Amino acid sequence: MSGKVVHANIDPSRPQLRADPRVFPAADSASLSDAAVDTAQDAQALADQDNNYGLIDHNAGRKGRGGGAAGAVPPPAAAPVPLDTQSSDVDPDDVGGNRNYEGTGDLICEGYLNKNRGFGTVKKRFFRLSTTEFAYFTKEAGEIINKIDAKHMQVMTDLNKGKFRVFFDKGFGGSGSREMLLEAPNTQIKLRWLEAYQKMWDKRDTVLLAEGYLTKVQSSGGSNTTRWFVLTNRDFSYYKEEAGERMATVRLENVLSVNIKDQKEFQVQANVAFTKTGANEVLIRCEHISIRNRWLTAFRAVLPDDRVMAPF
Is the pTM of this model over 0.70? Predict the structure, then answer.
């Protein structure tokens, strides 16, 4: 199977980057038309191709990778199209624009990509991926053509050379297609987009539970230090100061216990060393018992009760 998975250790419960089973040598590459769902005949052809090549579609219940029929024939090859080639200005996905649209969410990646529609039809568009949406424009700072909530991006697959394919769980664009074949100028830029897709899901899935200044108590008799502590549904970290350098972090799956040590203190212990000094635990002092209890409650929201002492 061709194709490269950019991130091997991906949470299986989330949309993933996957190697596309429908990858063929460059000379035989073909793009599926975005308009393949416009007619029942094309829709059936698309379903038949999925059956033949064992396409995996997140949360769609299609059959697994490698389950294609023996001797399956790839789609007809399309003539190679230069990256900077543009076809007619008529594009079924062009549904009206807004030159002043600036997008929403935190920007993760943007730049020019070729939008391939099959049969040699290529559009050079400016794409933008943020934490909340995936959109493309006529050009940089141009009119928006279409956008979709990023939560509907289900799979992004790595194809040969600069090509990659994006699958959605709902129709996107004027054609209503659930997939889009894109091509970057080179493989480096393509990998940047694949990594950006993973980063988008990381940011969307991270939930902040508690943050604030707390005192890190030195067990060896050294000077106590004030640090900015952050707890998310993924990890526990502390920084030199708010928005400053990160000093230490530990994944929640490595946290063994969160115990009360005093009215204003609690201790976080892990099964791995996570501080700069190589310690696997940190003792924390709060200004008030109510602050300590707020942190304990936050930990109990993401860790089993037997690992976190109940606040009192």
Answer: no
